[in-house]
Description:
Layout lengths: L2 H4 L5 H12 L1 H9 L6 E5 L2 E4 L4 E4 L2 H4 L8 H10 L13 H13 L4 E7 L2 H16 L3 E5 L8 H6 L2 H6 L8 E4 L4 H8 L4 E7 L14 H12 L2 E5 L23 E4 L11 E6 L4 H5 L12 H14 L2 H24 L4 E7 L2 E6 L4 H12 L1 E2 L1 E3 L2 E7 L7 H24 L2
Parallel strand pairs: 3-13, 5-6, 5-7, 7-8, 8-9
Antiparallel strand pairs: 1-2, 2-3, 4-10, 9-10, 11-12, 12-15, 14-15
Helix pairs in contact: 2-3, 5-13, 6-13, 10-11, 14-16, 15-16
Amino acid sequence: MDLLKAFGFADKAEVLAASERWWNPGKTRFWTEAGVPLVVGRREGYWLEDVDGRRLLDAHLNGGTYNLGHRNPDVVAAVRDALDVLDIGNHHFPSVVRAALARDLVATAPEGLTKVAYGSGGGEAIDIAIKTARHATGRRRIVSVVKAYHGHTGLAVAAGDERFARLFLAERPDEFSQVPFNDLEAMAAALRPGDVAAVLMETIPATYGFPMPEPGYLAGVKTLCEAAGTLYIADEVQTGLMRTGELWAITKHGVRPDLLVTGKGLSGGVYPISAVLVAEHAAGWLTEDGFAHMSTFGGAELGCVAAITTLEICARAETRDRVTALSGRIADGLARLRAANPGWFAGIRQDGVVLGLEFDHPEGARHVMRELYGVGVWAIFSTLDPRVLQYKPGLLLDDALADELLERTGDAIARARRAVRLHE
């Protein structure tokens, strides 16, 4: 299928012009000026193809949406088969596949999570989690971390970085507050008044550049929450589904969250779906008034089919083994690249195939991103810390492709270093 001709465009320039006119002028101009005028056409496995023919290894995966590769054949086949019988379904009524996915999520979840509520995206699921915590505790305040990102919907945007909250007049300092990551004293002070409904935390903050939690930090936060009667919401939208070598990253820290949010990769990028897993002691509204949250597309039946297949693939022993082997291979390769670029490639933040690459320049990752695009790799800088490149190899990436990714990454890092120093 020729996407350009199929939708009435002569070339890529026309698509960019139409996007700037009718879709999102700011974002379209940003990427063009950043040297990444990408318009994605065909996609397969861990490859993207720009509509101008450029092929790119995808090391961004839309935040982990494509953990299993673009258009994973098993997920696509499951949805195609389901289309003979199913559509999105009706959100009011019990559903065979909705019940099956809830059963499977609970079976794989951290101990104590017993109920599932559905959304269509991560932001909506965060909203559900916050509402759930408020109902369960009778409190309003939510504490998150500085430079947090939890989505752009009503409550989620207020819990995140002020850059996005302020734009839409969503700052609510009386209801939402933030403390520095890895600072237990600051968290203790925030919880001391005893009026906090929930602490909302990404297990590894993604848009902040994947700073790693210090040993004992997350468990310490959970202990503080328990003492204060506050619920712990684990945002696993980007770190869940085996990216860290465990199905849910929070389990590596010995924490049993009261709520867990998953999205992005849950359907393999084939159909929008997200979910909130809730402990029994926090799930009262589901019995008290099951109509309290409604979402026409939340838990859409086609999305549930995709998610059941995705969850099964992610939970396989061979997937875990592949992530473990790949993590080591990538770590070794990046260590060599760092040694070859002293004073420029400054650090590696890693847990499994969650990686942040630090550069010794305030905009270093933006420069590396541009050079990566030039050598055929797509990875994105961290919006809230542009020194750090978000680097997300796919869970099923084979050794040959991993080595190719590392080779291209090395070329891009060296080119960016030369370009920056030339202009200093």
